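Journal club prep — side note

Before the paper discussion, L.F. wants everyone to see what a predicted structure for a comparable chain looks like in token form. Sequence:
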Amino acid sequence: MSLNLTGFGNLTAGNLTDFNINDCTLSICPIAYAQVHYDPSLAGNALYLAIFVVLLMIHIFFGIRYRTWGFFGSLFGGLLLEIIGYVARVQMHFNPFLSNPFLIYIICLTIAPVFLTAAIYLCLARIIVVYGKQYARFAPRTYTIIFISCDIFSLILQATGGGMADTAATSSQGQTGINIMIAGLSFQVVSLTLFAALCADFAWNVRKARDVRAPLQVSSSRAKFHGFLYALGLATFTIYIRSCFRVAELQGGFNGTLANQEVPFMILEGAMVVIASISLTVAHPGLIFGKSWGAANIRNGGNGETKLELGNGSSFRR
């Protein structure tokens, strides 16, 4: 076996072990030896990077202004990981042979949407209180506990798998890490499916009770509150599409066909997460609930009713 790489001479089976792929550049090594079999687009990845930076700045402003600490913390974690991931992909444009940027982008962009779904889950409990818990299958707080727990479990699996893939000494260990990442992503798809089903069930029950309307003391206008609901639905749908894509992508491993095509990645990963993040920004809960979101307490009363306590001293009971 002999590889003719410019600057390295002829590498044979006898001295191939002395060759370090991190020493390669596009000018001396073929793209087939890169971490991905394409040169990541500088314009496309830089665009996504810029979008996530701007969105993070907006969420820092909204989080401080409206005190939406739980929602802000989730978006901050997700957007920060997206930024780190796309910084790594920009770095890969200049040298796609380096292993560290590749692993950083794989791990960060894989686990980032877990934090976005956590933000969505936090919204559901308050929406249920607004319309009435009698239309839901469970108590509002129960939804939050169940799905945040699913998010944490999915995050642990994906982070553990990513760490194993990063530190693997053999290809079999690396594949084990990939399989654990797939398990985490698959669990996220299942939990999102269950979440969507329960949301649809709740929405159907509310729709059947046609006299139910969102109270004006919670939203600035019914139209804006409905826009908030549609934005959450769009964010959930796009993250679901993205998660299904990543499961399919990793099924073939890092060397699989789908994992080495940039166009599907930029559309079904990048664009989907951008749409979800923009949706969670333009329909920020602070714009709907005001500062009451951050100080709101969802409590179960002794008489079986649920009370949404607002930061201005008022409360809304169902």
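L.F.'s comment for the group: Residues 6-17, 300-307, 309-316 have pLDDT under 50 and may be disordered. Keep this in mind when we get to the figures.
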